Amino acid sequence: MSATTNDTELLAQLKTGSIAAFQHFYIAYRQWLLVTAMTILKNEEEARELVQEFFIDFWQNARYEKIDLTNIQTLKNFLFVSIKNRCLNKIAKDDTRKKRMKEIMLAADYTPPNNKLENNELKQQLENAINLLPERQLLVFRLAYLEHKTRKEIAAAMQISEETVKKQIANALKTLRTYLRKIQL
After folding, report:
1. What is the C-alpha to C-alpha distance for residues 103 and 2, in angstroms, rounded to an integer?
2. What domains are there in the chain, each with its CATH number?
3. What pLDDT does residue 2 have?
4. Which of 31, 56, 60, 171 has the most CB atoms in a 10 Å sphere around its CB?
C-alpha cells in the first residue's frame, strides 16, 4: 500500500474523529513537523510549542469539520504548508512586537519637561525599592526588566528552572508594588 493510500485512509479516519487515527497521525508526523518548524524558526522551544498547537488545532478543527480533509491532495504537502505558514506568522508577530517595543522605548535620560523633579524622585524611589529586594529576586528582576533577558536566558544563566524565574519575578513585582503603595500614602 502506498503512502498516498495510507494518507487517504488516515484522513478518512481522522474525519470520523478516530482517536486511534489521530494518535497514528501524531506519531507519524510529529518529528518531521518539528524538524521543519525548527529549520524555519531556529528555536527548538518555539518549534515544539508551535507544532503542539498545530496538532491541537488540527484535531479540534478536523473533528468539527472546520478543515475540509477531502480536498487535501497529499498530506505531507498540507502539513508542510500549514507549519510553514504558522512559523512565518510567528516570525511576523515577533517582528511586529519588537518594532513596537522599539518605537515606545525612550532614551534612558528622557523626562517630560514639566515633571523632571517629580520623575527624578519617582526614579529614586523605584531604585530604593528595587535595592530592597532579596538578592536572588534582585538579580532575576534586573536581568528580566533592565537587561531584557528572557526567562529561558535567565534560567540558564542562574542555573534554575524557568518556573523558578517566573516565581521570582512575580514575588519581586509584588514586593515592589507593596513598597511603592506604602510610600504614596
Report:
1. 54
2. 3-104 (1.10.1740.10), 113-184 (1.10.10.10)
3. 42
4. 171
